[in-house]
Amino acid sequence: AFLELSGTSEIKGVWKDSVTLPCAYVPVEDLVQQTLTWAVVHDKGSGAIIRRDDSGDQVLLSEYRGRVSIPKDAPGNVSLLILSLEITDRGTYTCQVTWRDSNNSLIAKEITTSLEVVKVAATKPIIRAAEPGLTLPAGASTSLSCEAGGSPPISYRWFRRGPAGTAELLSSGAELAWPSLRPSDSGTYFCEAHNR
What we know:
By secondary structure, the protein is mainly beta. About 0% of the residues lie in helices and about 50% in strands. The relative contact order is 0.19. Pfam families: Ig_3, V-set.
């Protein structure tokens, strides 16, 4: 029986986002998975993060508690999911699996993945209007909301375009709302998104 772990040698994760470090094998008859360990080496030292054996899954490094898991119901998929990435999570991760064969001997394999954690610039903001069409009667209420992607936190600012290319700052929230529109509210509005 021939067993190989497959994964990827390097992966980029986004700060505060989640990432999956792939590790998988094709199950082979007569070979039973005994233990699975994900270990890490990074700036703060090294150690086993999570271990799976007959008694279940155990998270061994406290900084990963509540943030890591391995699929439960996919035989052969032993990938590591890490939630809400921190910059300090960058490092080299090793997936180690041991199997027992029908003669009771152990076979062990491991693969290594390096994880880089990046901060992503805010994308160009998208403006969504509360109503379709932007011609509204005086006295109506409406709103515009602004959305952008990237590493959180993202902050927003709304401006109104003035004469000769000037801009007036209106508010610093994702939404711009008018409880009761006046004719003088007609104009061109734009939104700016930025993060750290």
